[in-house]
User: Which sequence fits this backbone?
């Protein structure tokens, strides 16, 4: 991991009207690091990702990017939204959706080069979806849709990946593919920040875990952060949790 963080969040606070989403959150993200954001619904996980992606403006605090990301850090930062934030009724094929990751949705119908199409096919290979490249996106299962969303993020090399609930609603084979992809990104020197409700996945994939409940409840290695006490503080009621060893799943 690089000594200089690629992303540094300092004393970040975000509100939606009268509702506080994040309060005084500080977090850094370095190259070759996977940090999982865990916490109950409404904890601010998605808001933190969107604020780093510059989709949400904070009330106070800062998000700073390393000079290593270049003059326009947005070109080196990929935000991957939750599955329900995509219109699956679009008359688009799986390949079309992945190509949006190269050009942006506003340029969805532009002519694509042979090289870019090959990049899309390779990204689909990584997530095991190449055979569905001509399928209309609305005909996919939830897990297949999640794979295609990830492929769209992989079509162009990036330094920072912001993944919002990548493990939500996926089957065991898809979960295994995602864990392998995340490990490959980390090994290649990328930084990954992901939001998840799956505490077992957070333990298995992360170098560090940030437990949120609007504020940072705990931040450290999985063993340091995912303790029964921290879980009880973040979720507010430990009786709602089914704990496997020292990991747990929230029943939302």
Assistant:
């Amino acid at each position: 991991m690089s000594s200089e963080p690629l992303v540094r969040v300092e004393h970040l606070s975000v509100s939606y009207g009268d509702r506080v989403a994040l309060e005084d959150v500080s977090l850094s993200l370095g190259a070759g690091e996977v940090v999982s954001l865990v916490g109950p619904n409404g904890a601010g996980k998605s808001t933190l990702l969107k604020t780093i992606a510059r989709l949400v403006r904070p009330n106070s605090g800062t998000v700073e990017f390393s000079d290593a990301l270049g003059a326009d850090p947005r070109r080196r930062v990929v935000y991957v939204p939750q599955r329900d934030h995509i219109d699956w009724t679009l008359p688009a094929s799986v390949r079309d959706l992945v190509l949006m990751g190269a050009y942006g949705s506003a340029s969805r119908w532009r002519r694509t080069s042979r090289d870019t199409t090959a990049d899309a096919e390779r990204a689909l290979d990584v997530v095991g979806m190449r055979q569905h490249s001509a399928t209309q996106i609305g005909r996919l299962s939830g897990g297949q849709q999640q794979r295609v969303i990830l492929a769209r993020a992989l079509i162009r090399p990036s330094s920072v990946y912001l993944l919002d609930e990548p493990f939500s609603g996926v089957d065991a084979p898809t979960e295994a593919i995602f864990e392998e992809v995340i490990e490959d990104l980390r090994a290649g020197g990328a930084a990954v920040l992901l939001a998840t409700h799956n505490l077992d996945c957070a333990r298995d994939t992360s170098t560090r875990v940030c437990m949120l409940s609007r504020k940072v409840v705990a931040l450290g290695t999985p063993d340091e952060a995912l303790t029964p006490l921290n879980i009880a503080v973040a979720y507010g009621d430990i009786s709602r949790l089914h704990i496997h060893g020292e990991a747990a799943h929230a029943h939302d």
Residues 105-111, 240-252 have pLDDT under 50 and may be disordered. Helices lie at 45-52, 94-103, 114-126, 142-154, 172-187, 199-205, 222-225, 228-235. The first helix runs from residue 45 to 52. DSSP finds eight helices and eleven strands in the chain.
